[in-house]
Amino acid sequence: MLRCSGAVLWEDLRTVAYLAAGGAIGTVLRYGVSLLFDSSRFPWGTFAVNFAGSFLLAIIFFYLMDGPGVSVQLRLFLFVGVFGAFTTMSTFTVDTVSLFVNGHYGLATSNVMLNAFLCLLGAFAGRFLSSLL
User: Helices 119-132 and 44-66: crossing angle, nearest 10°?
Assistant: First the structure.
């Protein structure tokens, strides 16, 4: 929330700028990755973004948590901005419901299983790899 005092307002506006810049980058990356996949029958683009996001976020998050200290601004930029815009859990849920409503029960179930389990596996792998850095 923005406050009225001059110095505090400036800090809040900078925070908004970090979030907006990160969000813009994450959105463009998400769109670019989704273009790499044919999602006409199955939402592979959404899955790829969710998996890549889980994996990369875990590597960076755990490396930074166990390694060098980082500023609050960098954390907001990366974790809320870039990865918040890059990952697509809301799209995942709509894709799954759409598959289900259209009678593609197996594909809907596959979508849930792939996103839930492989993305978790990606996060565990990212955590492990961060310890090697």
Answer: 30
Residue 11's Cβ-side half-sphere holds a number of Cα atoms within 13 Å equal to 9
Rounded to two decimals, what is the model's pTM? Answer: 0.74
**Closest to 78 in 3D by CA, of 61, 55, 62:** 61
Residue 81 φ then ψ, to 5°:
-75, -70
Q: In the chain, what are the domain boundaries?
A: 6-132
Of the listed ranges 33-47, 56-70, 76-90, 98-112, the least confidently predicted one is: 56-70
The full DSSP string for 62-118 is: HHHHHSS---HHHHIIIIIIIHHHH--HHHHHHHHHHHHHTT-HHHHHHHHHIIIII
